[in-house]
Amino acid sequence: MGSGTAGGGIVPDQSVTPQPVLVRGGTVVTEEGQRRADVLCVAGKIAVVGERLEAPAGGAVIDAGGCLVMPGGLDPHTHMRLPMMGTHVADDFLSGTAAAASGGTTTLLDFVGPERGQSPLEALRLRLGEAAIASVDYGFHMTVSWWGDRFSEEMGPLVAEHGVTSFKFFTAYKGALMLPDEDIIRGFVRCRELGALPQIHAEHGDLIAYLQAKLLRQGDVGPSAHARSRPSQLEGEATHRVITIAEIVDVPLYVVHVSAAEAAEFIGRARRRGLRVIGETLPGFLAIDDAVYQDPDFDQAAGHVMSPPFRPRGHPEALWRAVEDGALTTTGTDHCCFTREQKRQGKDRFTSIPNGVGSVEDRLHIVWHLGVNGGHLSPERFVSVTSANAARAYNLWPRKGSLQVGADADVAVLDPARTKTISARTQRQRTDFSIWEGREVRGVVVHTLAGGRHVYADGDLRAEAGSGRFLKRAPFGPAYEPAAGQRTPR
Ligand code: URP
Ligand code: ZN
Ligand code: ZN
What we know:
Elements: E1 21-30, E2 33-42, E3 45-50, E4 60-63, E5 68-71, E6 73-75, E7 83-84, E8 87-88, H1 93-102, E9 105-112, H2 120-131, E10 137-143, H3 149-160, E11 166-170, H4 181-194, E12 197-201, H5 205-217, H6 224-228, H7 232-249, E13 253-255, H8 261-272, E14 277-281, H9 298-303, H10 315-324, E15 328-331, H11 340-343, H12 363-373, H13 379-393, E16 411-421, E17 440-450, E18 453-457, E19 460-461
Parallel strand pairs: 1-4, 1-5, 6-9, 9-10, 10-11, 11-12, 12-13, 13-14, 14-15
Antiparallel strand pairs: 1-2, 2-3, 5-16, 7-8, 16-17, 17-18, 18-19
Helix pairs in contact: 3-4, 4-7, 7-8, 8-10
One zinc ion binds near residues 201, 256 and 257.
């Protein structure tokens, strides 16, 4: 890894213009199609996509022969250094973005999480300080961790001046982040006034609290009880309820981390009725089922504890169908990784296990391997679900998620024949656990350009602290028309 370490003393140097880079001899894949072409990047932007381009004077050449050249991944859902249950997510903005870059992801949308009663503007200021070490571009969603007049007022400058244009509401985590429906309605109305996009963590928080208390009373304290305290119909119910709220308020809605077939079904139905509901799923939910919670080894079972949890067999298959038929259109990771030791704080009580798993490093590999090799996705749709659709949802397209001339030179070069076995022993994510341990994937990112910088070169991670830029996002206009030159979220 390049200069700079997590912690103090970082001087972000974004003033140095990246040298020109020619990505030569590959097959360019975008949403529109595939063609043999070279990609010339100048001053951090896509300058030319064409055949047999000249190598730039004083620039670098990347040999992409036999490889696919695609827009860098946009992970719309990460949690670097998130405080949770008395501990912190193990990855900070340097280790997490470097891991992302090594797997072809060049943009993260992370969260600002104000304390209860804390000014969201102040929380943003502090979070920007934490993120200054990022090695790829990043933007923020705001967690609506409490509701009141001050929160509502500060949403104005957050959207109009600071480029924070999406707000995550929770129907779960009772006693912490969960808001009553009346506050969710107020918050959605405020989003509509501002042209901001509400997001929802949809699970029925009161019923989860009831089931947690019941299981603990019965002495059912191990990690397997985590999944039983959050059955899939609680996600279905909350998803349906919040889609109804969004429809009545007349605001688009982004549903994060969809894990349950019921939730995907409600989102698909809403979209077929023409509602602007966008569903995000995670690679883990497309591949892993709740058998992981039956592992007698606490570290293995607790390592998979996240909310919503992995679901019974049948749900991953249903989610793939929902991706295929366009109900679910984006993939994030909800990257929120902890070490085995951190998870052990819940050894005697599943409700004390920090919630979350990691994946930011291998999202593209998993989605390619399962999706494209598995026959669910064309390479073009791979681009849609790993970057372009999220870029549109968050008003970053075509700067992100495209290889149009003038777009940021964020490029992932993927060798479809290369294989990799994922392991905690070799990953860059800063944890000793992987939900993908031992999985072999075919289709591996071999080069990554982030803002024109060659941050990953076939095993050599060159990501530099501070080279990522904060992305101020524009709000949507009246009736949620996208900003000029952009496309409607889909
Ligand atoms: O378990 C999870 N998903 N942790 C991250 C917080 C959230 O709800 O997204
Ligand atoms: Zn959530
Ligand atoms: Zn999350």
